[in-house]
Amino acid sequence: MAKVNRIQWFDSALDRWHKYDAETNELLSTKMTEGPYADIEIVKLQPLTATKAAEMEGKRRKKVNYLSNKELLSEYAKSIEQDKMTDKFAHMLHLLVFRISKKGNFVNYTYIDDMRSHALMLLMHTWKRFDPESSKNPFAYYTTCISNSFIQILNQEKRQRTIRDEIMVKNGLTPSFTYQEEHAAENTYTNSDGPDE
Fold first, then answer.
1. What's the Cα-to-Cα distance from 184 to each of 44, 166, 178, 189, 196, rounded to whole Å?
2. pLDDT in tens, the chain (197 residues)
3. Which string of DSSP letters, residue by residue, matches 15-82?
4. Verdict on whether the full-model pTM lies above 0.70
5. Cα(29)–Cα(4) distance, rounded to whole angstroms?
């Protein structure tokens, strides 16, 4: 079997395909794509260098965290020195927002893009508020900020849904299933056929 020179794999942390040339040991592309590149073999994991592969022979591959407190703290310090967010720090926060939005309690909302945008906007305003004197855990601080911003958007959407359902009830239309369930005991709404029994 001939040695494959070019391979690709899917990076779920960044939600993109990476293309790798084994001869030059270089990453050819990290652009967002709709799917895998044509005519290039797909592998499950990012390839190891020859020395690293020999070192790892017979060992299980360790799971690597996508962000570490140490890196996040050092990039925060660099950003504070420059009085503006560094590109790497911005990328780290963007990655954090993306990964948190993939959690089970946020993933299936139709307005997930709005939630991510709101979280990023909130982080741009509040990134300097982290205090390394009181805590050495920026990961927890920014995770809490992002989760709270997601919950803000969910609460706003719930208020909008309730207003829409009340208008639908006033006009004799059937409201959403959630509204019907919440108000079933009260029997306070009517649909186009008349009051519910």
1. 50, 14, 10, 8, 9
2. 445 566 666 666 566 666 766 666 666 555 555 566 666 666 656 555 666 656 656 666 556 667 888 999 999 999 999 999 999 999 999 999 999 999 999 989 999 999 999 999 999 999 999 999 999 999 999 999 999 999 999 999 999 999 999 999 999 999 998 888 888 877 655 555 555 44
3. TEEEEEETTTTEEEE----SSPPTTSEE-SSPPPPHHHHHHTTTSPPPP--S--HHHHHHHHHHHHHH
4. no
5. 17
